[in-house]
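Quick one: examine this chain and its backbone structure tokens and tell me how the chain folds. Here goes:
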Amino acid sequence: MQNNEKTLKILLIEIFNGELQWKRQYTDRHGETQEYDVDSSEVVSQLMHSDSDEFDYLTKINPDYQGITVAPVDNYGGEDQGSEYWSVWKFTKDSEEVLVKFEGYYQSHYGTDFQEWNFVKPAQKMVTIYVKE
């Protein structure tokens, strides 16, 4: 199967679970070009933190993943919100669309850690709250 025949889900599995590695460059404050390594684990960690920079860069430099776009859908977590921490993103390629949830946890004395990612779909949940009479 050629890459242009792979479904969006298969391409995302390759990116998020893969052993992909690439180099990024930036210019430091002294005007010198510096280089650093990036891999798949950095992509999923950034997406959990509501940042798509490395994913966007990968889709520009790697022809296998060109045409995949990403948009934030929802997120939760951080200071004063308990240990739960997650972000949901919508990925699109041609007519395919999938939602992915990146989950981790937050601790005030430590920060955040990525735990897992999953394909998800929206579902409604009825919640009962109690208000003053």
Notes: The chain has three helices and six strands. The radius of gyration is 18 Å.
